[in-house]
Design brief:
205 residues; alpha+beta; two-stranded antiparallel sheet; 9-stranded mixed β-sheet
Length: 205
């Protein structure tokens, strides 16, 4: 089965956390802006359904969406951030399209679907216990904004630097585009200065 076909069928397979999304929280409708757009705000602060499932602390659906689109979007998003939470590249393959484009590609990272896999392998060599928590997620049609906290301990090597077990909490924010149940585009920014200071690689006087 082609990757594109699997993405088109993503809405047919539901992640356990999608059940929580549909029935585990009470919708709270509110009006925003002069257009009186109804926003559906859901709190997902309950523990994740599986040990390796990313925690989403606050989720906002900023405009009405068909059920099928919402379920396909949440499946792709869950798979993508479960990948960052675990390093499991099978989850990445479920989440992104074959024409995936990183619009803020760092130097040395390959473009396309291999880019996130490359980044995860390289960083987990330095921080094997890397975990991510989604603090805020806003879904607006085809676009999803995700603000995250990363945690872990620098016990491996990063470049020429050997970790000493120090904690390395830092933040990052993504803007992703989802079409046909797969992530096609990503714009991202990480607090790299804080991270490099925590790793002992950069110093700011």
């Amino acid at each position: 089965m082609s990757h594109e076909l699997k993405c088109a069928r993503a809405k047919q397979a539901r992640h356990p956390s999608d059940r929580h999304f549909r029935s585990g929280s009470t919708p709270n409708k509110r009006l925003r802006g002069v257009g009186l757009v109804a926003a559906l705000t859901l709190s997902l602060s309950a523990p994740a359904f599986a040990a390796d499932s990313v925690q989403i602390n606050d989720l906002v659906i900023a405009a009405p969406m068909p059920d099928a689109q919402r379920e396909a979007t949440m499946k792709a998003i869950r798979a993508f951030y479960d990948f960052w939470n675990t390093g499991d590249e099978a989850l990445l393959n479920q989440a992104i399209a074959s024409n995936f484009t990183d619009h803020t590609l760092p130097p040395g990272r390959p473009q396309g679907p291999e880019g996130p896999a490359f980044a995860s392998r390289r960083f987990r060599a330095a921080v094997p216990d890397l975990k991510v928590t989604v603090e805020k997620m806003i879904v607006a049609g085809d676009y999803v904004t995700v603000h995250m906290n990363f945690t872990g301990h620098f016990t491996g090597r990063f470049g020429q630097t050997q970790g000493k077990g120090q904690p390395i909490p830092f933040i990052a924010t993504d803007l992703v585009k989802i079409q046909n149940g797969c992530i096609t585009d990503n714009w991202h920014i990480e607090d790299n200065l804080t991270l490099l200071q925590e790793m002992g690689i950069a110093k700011v006087d």
